[in-house]
Specification:
- By secondary structure, this protein is mostly helical.
- It has three helices and no strands.
């Protein structure tokens, strides 16, 4: 079997209302560029393994994190401050009890 690093196939796109009328190459290319990630996922492939002839690869859209990084850092800092306050309060209570027992 002759294995290649890419998968190739040919497809035709027709209009849903009239299956004998073809969709223009420019419209198909634009749709492929906009939906490249969905097409790759449908075939379980990547841009390295699925190539569209005459449609240059596009950079993937930047991933938007669901939580902003500054919010995560703020949460960590506030948590550390709260832990420090609780530790100071508990150590103060323990020292007070030791001082009362010692007198």
């Amino acid at each position: 079997c002759n294995e290649t690093p890419r998968v190739s196939f040919w497809f035709v796109v027709t209009k849903p209302t009239n299956t004998s009328e073809l969709v223009s190459k420019q419209d198909v290319a634009l749709a492929v560029r906009k939906s490249r990630n969905r097409i790759n996922n449908a075939f379980l492939l990547t841009d390295k393994t699925l190539q569209f002839v005459d449609i240059p690869p596009t950079l993937a859209a930047p991933v938007e994190p669901s939580t902003q990084p500054w919010l995560i850092a703020f949460g960590v800092v506030i948590s550390l401050v709260m832990v420090a306050i609780v530790a100071l309060v508990i150590s103060g209570m323990v020292q007070k009890q030791r001082k009362e027992k010692g007198m």
